[in-house]
Amino acid sequence: MGNRSLPSQGRPANEVLADLAAKRDGDVRWAEGRTFGLVFDGGTDVRAVAEEAASLYFHENALNTQAFPSLGAIQSELCRWTADLLHGGDDTAGFLTSGGSESILCAVEAARERARAERGVTEPELVLATNAHAAFHKAAHLFGLQARVVGVGDDWAADVEAMADMVGPDTALVVASAPPYPQGVVDPVIEIAELAATVGANCHVDACMGGFVLPFAEMEGRSTPAWDFRADGVTSISADLHKLGYAPKGVSVLLHRSRDLRRYQTFEFDGWLGGRYATPNLQGTRSGLPMAAAWAVVQYLGVDGYRRLVRTTLNTADRIREQVRSIDGLRVLGDPVHHLLAIAADPDSDRPIEPFALGEALAARGWHHDRQGPPESLHLTVSAGNAAALDEYLSDLTSAAEESRGGPSGRATNYATLE
Question: Which domains does the chain have, with CATH numbers?
Answer without folding.
Answer: 51-299 (3.40.640.10), 302-404 (3.90.1150.10)
